[in-house]
Amino acid sequence: MSNIIDGKAVSQSVKDRIKVEAAQLKEKYGVTAGLAVIIVGDDPASRIYVNNKKKACEYVGFDSYEYALPEETTESELLELISKLNNDDRIDGILCQLPLPKHIDENVIINNISPYKDVDAFHPVNVGKIMIGDYNFLPCTPAGVMELIASTGVDIKGKECVVVGRSNIVGKPMSMLLLHKSGTVTICHSKTKDLKAECKRADILIAAVGVPNLIKGDMIKEGAVVIDVGMNRLDNGKLCGDVEFESASKVASYITPVPGGVGPMTIAMLMQNTLTAAKVNRNLI
Ligand code: NDP
Fold it and tell me: I want to staple 143 with a disulfide (CB 3.0 to 4.6 A). Which of 17, 105, 135, 138 is the partner?
């Protein structure tokens, strides 16, 4: 039976560390980090994420500025707000909650957020910096996964790491971070010929697919570390990962549950990026 990685506990310790650093920043330099969160429309899931981000800001001692815009907001109105925030010294980080309504081009919005305030690390400049290993911000979900792996004490160096999924926000940056830690990385996707064989080689297996219970216990090497990024809502309303927890937990040495694994880490890492932005933008590091 595996050890279950407690994402809530790891995320709490990251937030507590940030809270201490935020207090020091205030005491030493009189600086309070500020995060602007933009939400367009009234998608209930997005609303929950935005509220959680606000709560996390309060907890660690950041100022949060919420911009709730109506569904019919135009792309140029949104760009105008972003330009204002890019030039507002109180704001260290800007996050535009995705998905945006269909009439707004997400890429245009991402490309117009200042790379210095891009706490999601989605801007092409930050994506490039991650590629070359010289970055300030890491995308929140992959960065959270790295913290979870670190919490197990397992050293990534030289390990077979298999990432299932190649999205720009999870799979690709995830693979890069594992590579920077000297893992031997394989990236799988929907055209991979023998997913079971690829997964079975993994010492560290990351599932970021969006298909409920795709990875079963018989696809996992004995003793592997298994991180399940998947967050899939089933018809009965329950959340479910990409890994079949029951069978996988009989084989893995460490495994994340869904919920309570990767999910809580994403917001903690957003707080980390906001703190970094406050320091970098004000030349404090
Ligand atoms: P995307 O849909 O953007 O990407 C999914 C990837 O999985 C694609 O690369 C796709 O391949 C691959 N894929 C799909 N089906 C298969 C299959 N049968 N076998 C192998 N690969 C397959 O999803 P995201 O990366 O945005 O998200 C992945 C999951 O992670 C989702 O469940 C999402 O909800 C969750 N998530 C969780 C977060 C958290 O905070 N915990 C944050 C972000 C995402 P191809 O490229 O060939 O189409």
Answer: 138
Q: What is the CATH number of domain 140-263?
A: 3.40.50.720
Q: Which residue among the candidates 15, 53, 159, 172 is catalytic per the annotation?
A: 53
| Residue minimizing CA distance to atom 1 of ligand 1 | 167
Q: Whose CA is closest to atom 47 on ligand 1?
A: 190
Q: Which of 15, 92, 117, 120 is catalytic?
A: 120
97 is annotated as an active-site residue: yes
Domain ranges of the chain: 30-114, 140-263
3-state helix/strand/coil string of the chain: CCEECCHHHHHHHHHHHHHHHHHHHHHHHCCCCEEEEEEECCCHHHHHHHHHHHHHHHHHCCEEEEEEECCCCCHHHHHHHHHHHHCCCCCCEEEECCCCCCCCCHHHHHHHCCCCCCCCCCCHHHHHHHHHCCCCCCCHHHHHHHHHHHHHCCCCCCCEEEEECCCCCCHHHHHHHHHHCCCEEEEECCCCCCHHHHHHCCCEEEECCCCCCCECHHHCCCCCEEEECCCEECCCCCEECCECHHHHCCCCCEECCCCCCCHHHHHHHHHHHHHHHHHHHCCCC
- Name residues contacting ligand 1 (CB within 6 A): 141, 164-167, 169-171, 188-192, 195, 208-211, 214, 229-232, 262-263, 266
Give, for all 285 residues of the chain, the pLDDT tens digit. Answer: 889 999 999 999 999 999 999 999 999 999 999 999 999 999 998 999 999 999 999 999 999 999 999 999 999 999 999 999 999 999 999 999 999 999 999 999 999 999 999 999 999 999 999 999 999 999 999 999 999 999 999 999 999 999 999 999 999 999 999 999 999 999 999 999 999 999 999 999 999 999 999 999 999 999 999 999 999 999 998 999 999 999 999 999 999 999 999 999 999 999 999 999 999 999 998
Residue having the nearest C-alpha atom to atom 17 of ligand 1: 190
pTM: 0.97
Q: Nearest C-alpha to atom 35 of ligand 1 is from which residue?
A: 230
The reply to whether 140-263 shares the fold of 30-114 is: yes
**Which CATH number is associated with domain 30-114?**
3.40.50.10860
